[in-house]
Sequence to fold (140 residues):
Amino acid sequence: MVAFLIAGCNDDSCDPQSSLPCDIIDDNQDECTPAPANCPHSVPEQGNLLIHVSQPLPVRVNIYAGAAYETGILIGSGVPTGTTWSLSLPLGKYSATALYVNGKDSVLAVDGSEVGYDSKGYCDETCFGATGGDLNLQLE
Fold:
């Protein structure tokens, strides 16, 4: 929390090192950290969704927009060629299923995650960054 002191100072009593107006003096100047030069100034539109599957690979992976695959909208389906891959997707909640088949037995692995963002406030601005989601569709 930054506390301000309103003072009716004249030009002779103002701190020449301060970037604040003469009548506002920041009591916590030492706690202020400027934003880094590469600070993203807006909320990102997309982030990465990391997907993990087991060996032997599932016969199909379905990805849904929405927290629950039963009610979500199917946005992608395919046969994986590796155990881990990443998709760049708009911010939101996602769920996925992986169908594993071994002879006559089949197992459906299900998981959900969110692609979001975080922010960090500095004394002069707020910086934003994407937080990726992580779907674990591996068999235990």
Notes: Residues 1-26 have pLDDT under 50 and may be disordered. The first strand starts at residue 4 and ends at 6. Strands lie at 4-6, 24-26, 46-53, 60-65, 73-78, 84-90, 92-102, 105-121, 126-131, 133-137.
